[in-house]
């Protein structure tokens, strides 16, 4: 039986319960209560069975040392050859994916334009930080972006590229679904720019991107749909009706940035730092 390692002294051991929070490309997430009352999320990882203990532990400790306002670092882990668990703080609002597309109840969370603009800026800052610090594709999609009680975005499941079995990486990691990933089978820093672009388009339009589906069957092709609207000057028609009145010109500008980032011609798109700067500039200009 492998040892359970806690990376923070204020967290105490727990038992993994039956409550599943979600099932993603890298594994299943569970909600667990620590003995001191702290609620955490436990990710049971798939596709990492080939990684050795030393490599796994060193990589998790490195990720645990990252500090950024929009990055959710691991606080503990468990290693066995046949099973790996990664523990992080629990985010009560769930994922951005669920907030935008999953909850259809009458009391569902509705993200207005100020909230979406703040979320976009936080995501851009977080991805730019990971891009600089890790030097490996982060490959974010909205299911890997959690929201805290104040609707601030926190990026999770980042930095696992070196640990995932190479044969499973194209199926498990969104970065491989970028244009260069699908055509050449490789990923690069441009893959992060593409992933950011898709999330920005998702935030502005409110549509579920077909880019999140390996088969591309279902959802909306937000990349081509938005690019066509920009070319024809019809950007305002794509803004999510839930918050169209509040988005104004800022929503149109953010959609244009998303289109630039998600361009299939990587040499025509912005760098990650430039993309983050453009999003920050829109956010700094207010929500009008």
From TrEMBL:
InterPro entries according to UniProt: Kinase-like_dom_sf, PRK1-6/SRF4-like, Prot_kinase_dom, Ser-Thr/Tyr_kinase_cat_dom
Gene3D superfamilies linked: Phosphorylase Kinase, domain 1, Transferase(Phosphotransferase) domain 1
Pfam families on file: PK_Tyr_Ser-Thr (PF07714)
Coiled coil: none
Start and end residues of each Protein kinase domain: 15-288
GO molecular function terms attached to this record: ATP binding; protein kinase activity
Name recorded for this polypeptide: Protein kinase domain-containing protein
Organism lineage: Eukaryota, Viridiplantae, Streptophyta, Embryophyta, Tracheophyta
């Amino acid at each position: 039986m492998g040892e359970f390692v806690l990376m923070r002294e204020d967290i105490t051991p727990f038992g993994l319960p039956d409550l599943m929070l979600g099932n993603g490309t890298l594994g299943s997430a569970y909600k667990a209560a620590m003995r001191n009352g702290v609620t955490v999320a436990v990710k049971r990882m798939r596709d990492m069975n080939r990684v050795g203990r030393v490599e796994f532990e060193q990589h998790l400790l490195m990720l645990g040392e990252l500090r950024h306002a929009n990055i959710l670092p691991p606080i503990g882990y468990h290693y066995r050859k046949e099973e790996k668990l990664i523990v992080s703080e629990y985010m009560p609002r769930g994922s951005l994916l669920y907030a935008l597309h999953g909850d259809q109840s009458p009391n569902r969370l509705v993200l207005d334009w100020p909230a979406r603009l703040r979320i976009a800026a936080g995501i851009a800052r977080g991805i730019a930080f990971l891009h600089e610090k890790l030097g490996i594709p982060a490959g974010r999609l909205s299911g890997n972006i959690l929201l805290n009680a104040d609707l601030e975005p926190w990026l999770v499941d980042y930095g696992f590229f070196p640990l995932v079995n190479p044969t499973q990486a194209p199926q498990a990691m969104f970065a491989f679904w970028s244009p260069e990933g699908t055509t050449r089978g490789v990923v690069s820093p441009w893959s992060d720019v593409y992933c950011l672009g898709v999330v920005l388009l998702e935030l502005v339009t409110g549509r579920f991107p077909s880019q999140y589906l390996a088969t591309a069957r279902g959802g909306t092709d937000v990349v081509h749909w938005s690019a066509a609207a920009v070319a024809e000057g019809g950007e305002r028609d794509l803004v999510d009706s839930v918050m169209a009145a509040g988005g104004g010109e800022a929503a149109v500008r953010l959609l244009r940035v998303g289109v630039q980032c998600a361009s299939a011609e990587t040499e025509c798109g912005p760098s990650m730092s430039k993309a983050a700067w453009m999003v920050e500039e829109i956010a700094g200009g207010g929500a009008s």
